[in-house]
Write a structure and sequence with these properties.
- The protein is about 35% helix and about 10% strand.
- The chain is an alpha/beta fold and about 600 residues long.
- It has a 10-stranded mixed beta sheet. A 4-stranded antiparallel beta sheet has the order 13-14-15-16, with helices on one face.
- A hairpin with a 2-residue loop joins strand 6 and strand 7.
- The protein starts with a helix and ends with a helix.
């Protein structure tokens, strides 16, 4: 039977409907199929931690949660930061060299001649994107808790640099037991929440309140509803060195043998762990360092206790990290979270207690430095130069300087996309972290952002490459005159007075990570080439010259006095008023008595 046109149309309609009905479930499945789940990211910055401070790197403190992340992820053993906190943090958050990022140094040691020069505004320069801003463009929720120290005023705080929620300490540090300053440069501990001044509780412990606040921010969204990036910047183990007594007491007697022994012990563990060649040497403590056996029994007791508190502070921080990890696990998000754990620079050598004028300032601000209660509320504890030299082993020197002790610090990456049990011994730098995270989450390029100086570490993590930087590719670092340049395993370094002499030296870090043998005369061609590389770096990023006779210590004193001068003048005027009133009252009393006698 021949089909009619109407029958043909009906048949075609029926066939079309059948095809649509048959295809509908597939189309529906495709539309409802979830896109690959982006991982959360938690970036943890420990303040002033040495290369070997974490247990996984051979440290004395118990850090089981950080060690777990190290086992499950990758440990970088040749990672370098800058020698000072703000420049390091600027690079860690942007992937851009600190000068190009706008944070060449810190305001506490900035000389007037560099103020407001390009790169020295000490807040992010226009066009410099933080990783928070990059990830926010990818749909991430962005959170920040802890030390900021990257500028203040309009446009400088976290809420204007890509962070949705933030609780930020806008200072180099503060008391860990409550909201008050730790040195005369500051007259308060300025905390801001979402860009507005916030009143903190009268008493807390810094590591605990930071993690509690971050947990609260995370819980503002249901688990799995939106990926988040969290920047958690602890005060541990920056001055003042403080910890709950229960943690500090776990290390009683651990450091009674002194700083020379600790430096030797760390070097031995470094050799055993492959952090340095078995036959490599280390430097002794500086010639002007005090010898442990020359200290009195009272001095030994308080300095040994300082290190017990230091270790307790690390363990207390690690316990707080453990609570955060447990919280993410309870939300079902731990396995989908990338962790970054690192330090901004090497250990802090400063002795704030015995600086000029500190005795009076401490009394006025309720601080003490005594064996009893060391590290507890009201204590201004520190470790000092000798312990810092010991902690930096196998490296030389400490924070502020570009010798290895000041810039070779731990880096751990752990989580989705990071193979577990990985050790990366090829050189890596602080500017490489953001490009790595951007690569791991597949974030888009941002043509409006200042270009990043770092490179993704993903190829060395996955085994696609053996090194991130080629043997002839130079990488420079400079902060307040202290400078270094890397070229493969070779490094030139210049440490400024009063600790250094301002002269360049050349080392082969593959054989000599302790920087004991200067190769400048033995390899003059390489030395000359690396000096030229550094000059090119300096010109490219805009390093500004320092004034004659500059030292960070003297500039800090000058800047602190300058900042406190108005307060000193007011206090002086008030004191004069009080004295004047007392004198006037005494004169009046004498006159009245004489009048009565007459």
């Amino acid at each position: 039977m021949r089909a009619t046109p109407a029958g043909t149309l009906r048949s075609l309609f029926s066939l079309s409907m059948a095809i649509l009905i048959a295809a509908a479930p597939v189309a529906a499945v495709r539309a409802q199929a979830p896109s690959p789940k982006k991982p959360n990211i938690v970036m943890i910055v420990v303040d002033d931690a040495a290369l070997m401070d974490f247990g996984a790197f051979g440290g004395e403190a118990r850090t089981p949660n950080i060690d777990r992340l190290a086992r499950q992820g990758a440990m970088f053993t040749a990672y370098h930061s800058s020698p000072l906190c703000s420049p390091s943090r600027a690079m860690l958050l942007t992937g851009v060299d600190n000068h190009r990022a706008g944070v060449a140094t810190i305001e506490e040691i900035l000389p007037p001649s560099q103020k407001d020069k390009p790169g020295y505004g000490l807040q992010f320069a226009p066009g410099v994107w933080t990783v928070a801003r990059r990830l926010k463009a990818e749909g991430y929720r962005t959170l920040m808790v802890g030390k900021w120290h990257l500028g203040h005023g309009p446009g400088a705080l976290p809420n204007e640099n890509g962070f949705d929620r933030s609780l930020a300490l806008d200072a180099s540090g503060a008391d860990n037991w409550g909201p008050r300053p730790y040195m005369p440069y500051y007259d308060s501990a300025p905390w801001f929440e979402d860009g507005k001044p916030v009143k903190m509780p009268d008493r807390y412990y810094s590591s605990d309140i930071m993690v509690d606040r971050l947990k609260g921010y995370i819980d503002e969204r249901p688990a799995g509803s939106q990926p988040f990036y969290a920047y958690l910047a602890f005060q541990a183990v920056h001055i003042p060195v403080q910890a709950p007594k229960a943690y500090s007491d776990r290390y009683k007697g651990r450091f009674d043998a002194g700083w020379e022994k600790l430096r030797e012990d760390r070097a031995a563990r470094a050799r055993a762990l492959g952090l340095m060649p078995a036959d490599a040497a280390i430097r002794d403590l500086p010639d002007d360092a005090r010898r442990w056996d020359q200290l009195t029994a009272k001095e030994k007791a308080i300095y040994a206790r300082s290190m017990e508190v230091y270790s307790g502070m690390l363990e207390a921080m690690d316990a707080a990290i453990g609570r955060l990890m447990a919280h993410l696990e309870a939300r079902g998000e731990l396995d989908n979270t990338i962790f970054v754990v690192t330090s901004d620079n090497g250990p802090e050598p400063s002795d704030p207690v015995h600086a000029p004028g500190m005795s009076l300032w401490m009394k006025l601000n309720g601080y003490r430095w005594t064996l009893k209660g060391l590290g507890e509320k009201g204590s201004l504890a520190f470790i000092g130069r000798e312990w810092a030299s010991a902690l930096s082993s196998p490296g030389n020197r400490y924070k502020f300087y570009t010798s290895q002790g000041g810039i070779r610090v731990p880096l751990i990456l752990s989580g989705p996309g990071v193979p577990g049990g990985t050790r990366v011994s090829s050189p890596a730098f602080v500017t490489d972290v953001v490009p790595t995270l951007v690569d791991l989450v597949g974030a888009r390029a941002q043509p409006d952002a200042v270009s990043m100086d770092g490179r993704s570490l993903r190829p060395v993590l996955t085994g696609a490459a053996t090194e991130t930087w080629g043997p002839n590719e130079p990488v420079g670092i400079e902060v307040s005159g202290n400078a270094a340049l890397f070229r493969g395993s070779h490094k030139i370094v210049r440490d400024m007075p009063p600790v250094g002499d301002g002269q360049w030296r050349l080392y082969d870090l593959a054989k000599d990570p302790g920087e004991t043998t200067d190769l400048a005369q033995a390899q003059p061609a390489l030395f000359k080439q690396m000096l030229a590389d550094y000059a090119a770096y300096e010109a490219r990023v805009g390093v500004q010259p320092l004034p004659e006779g500059y030292t960070t210590q003297n500039q800090l004193m000058d800047n602190a006095m300058g900042k406190q001068r108005p307060r000193i003048v007011i206090m002086g005027l008030l004191l004069l008023g009080v004295v004047g009133g007392l004198i006037a009252g005494a004169v009046l009393l004498i006159r009245r008595r004489r009048a009565k006698a007459a």
